[in-house]
C-alpha cells in the first residue's frame, strides 16, 4: 500500500487495511477546536506552544512580534509553515537558533517528516530510526546519530492554533477504544459475533451470500488452528528483520520499522503514565519524561511530538514467506465456497470443468478465490499488517469489489463499518467513485466526525442503525463483505493477516465493475516474469490492458465452469440494469429540483448552448446528500467564511446573474 506522508496540505493516498487502491485525498485541517467527547491529555508542549485563545487570558504581552520580527509576525501561521517547508534542513536548523518563535516553526515535526521522506531519503526509504523525524533526517544527512537536544523549554509561551493542533491530536485518546475496560463498559461489540464452530455452509448462507459482516470468535477450548498466533512486531523483527517492507509513505527494513513502532509505543506509555498520575503537577510530569530520556535507546526522543496516526505496515511480500513457513492460514469458514449456499449457482458435476486437476482449478476450489484463475496476473491479495496503537486505516472500500478477512495475531483492532450505499460523514466521493477525500488522520476523523456518525447512523435516538462497530481480538477474524466501507484502528501494538478474495458471493458485482469501470481496476499485472524489476509499478497493467482484463477473466471463468460463468454474467447484467435505473432516477430528481425556481435548467446553459450538467446554483440549492451538506456546514463554521469558490465550476461565473437573490 502506498501513501503520502501526513501533512497539513491536501494529498492523495491509498488507504490500508485491505488493499484499497482508490486514491484518497486528505483534506486540509480546518478546525482546531477540541473534540466534545474525546479525552485529551493536558501535557505541556515541549516548546511551550499553547492554543491562540489562551493569549486572551494572560496579562503578559504577546511575544509574536519580538520572536518572529515585524514582517513575519504579520503572516498567517499556515503561510509561515508553507514558507519554512521550502527551506533545506540546514536552513531550518539555522532558523531554529534565531528565536523561540522561529524555533517553534522550524521544529514543526511535519516539516521534518516531509524533508526526510520526500527529500533526504529517496522514495521514502529510511535506513534507521533515531527518535524523531528531525533526528532521523539529521542522521541520514551526516551519516551518524545526533543526540537529542537538551530539554530547554522557552519560559514564555508561543500562541498558535496551527502549531498546537498536532500536539493536541497526538495526546487525544480515541474514546472508549483505547482501554479494554472502557471497551467492555461501552458494549461496542455491535458486529455480529459467530462461533468458531460455524460450518462453511452456514457461514456462506447466513453471511457471505447476504453480504453481512461478522466476527468469527476464537474456539472456546482455546485450541486455535492459527500457527502464527502471538506473533508481535518484535517477533517479526527477529524473523524477518532485514526484509524491506512498505508502511504507507515509508520504505524500510522490518527492524527499522520495529524501532519506529517501539518509539510510538513508548510515547503512548508516557501519555498513559501521565493519566495515572493525575494528582502530580504537569510540570513535574514533563521534567520526569525529560530526565528519563537518557535511559532509553536513541529511537526514543521525549522532546518530539508523536505522530498522531503512526505509519501502518502493510506489506505483500512477507506473506509469501509466511506461507512457505507454514504461518499463513485461511480461516476454515473461508477456505472453500460451497455452491449450494447460492441457489442460482449450479453445483459442479464430476464431469464439469470444475473437477479438473489443473493447478488453477485446484487453487480456486481450495481457496474459494476465483481471481486465482488469473494466476500471476491477479493483484496482490495477501497482506501482513502491523503497527503500534493508534495506527490503522481510514474509511475505504476494498479494491475491485473484493471481500476480505482480517485476523490479528497479536493486539486488537477497533472496526467501524457502514453499508456500501452509506458514505461516512467527513468522507467525500467523486461522482465516478474513483477518488475519496477524507481527514488527514484517524484521530482527526474521530475528533470531528465520530459523534455525527453516531447520531446519524448509530442505534440511538435518531440514528438509522446502519453503523456497525466491533473489537476484534487476537485469534478472531473479521469478515468484510464486498463494497462495505470500513475504518480500522489498532488499540494496541499488534500484527495481523488479511486477504482479499473473490468468491461466488461477490462474483456478479466484480464482473459488472470490471466491465463498466475499467479505469478503476487496480492491481492487475502483466504477468511477465521479471517485468516488475525494482519498481512495483513496472508490472502494472496499462489502460489498454485494463480494458482487456475483463474479457480474459470471463474466458478463464468459462473454462473453469461454464454454468457458473453464465449464472454470474446474468447477475452482472441485472446489476447493470439496476444501476442504470438508479442513475436515470437521480437525473430526473435533479431536473425536478430545478423546476419553478427561475434557475437555468440542466437542458441548456445560461447562454442557450447544449448542456452537460446542472448549473452551480442548482447543485447548491438541491443540496445533494443531507449528510454531506451538514458536514460542509460544519467545516465552513470551523474558521473559514462562506465562499462560492468551491461551488463554481468552469463556465459557471456567467450564471451568477440567474441567481434568484
Short précis:
Residues 651-661 have a biased composition (Acidic residues). The protein has 661 residues and is of the alpha+beta class.
Structural account:
The protein is α+β, with helices and mostly antiparallel strands and 661 residues long. Among the domains are: 11-175 and 234-306, no CATH class; 594-661, no CATH class. A seven-stranded mixed β-sheet has the order 7-8-19-14-21-12-11. A hairpin with a 2-residue loop joins β9 and β10 (250-253). It starts with 10 loop residues before the first strand and ends in a 25-residue tail after the last helix. Residues 69-115 form the F-box domain. Residues 350-518 form the JmjC domain. It holds the Pfam family Cupin_8.
How far apart lie the N and C ends?
A: 49 Å
Q: Please report the number of helical segments.
A: 20
Widest sheet, order of strands: 7-8-19-14-21-12-11
Mean pLDDT: 76
Main sheet record: 7 strands, mixed
**Percent helix:** 25-40%
Radius of gyration: 27 Å
GO molecular function: cis-regulatory region sequence-specific DNA binding
Protein name: Clavaminate synthase-like protein
GO cellular component, one term: nucleus
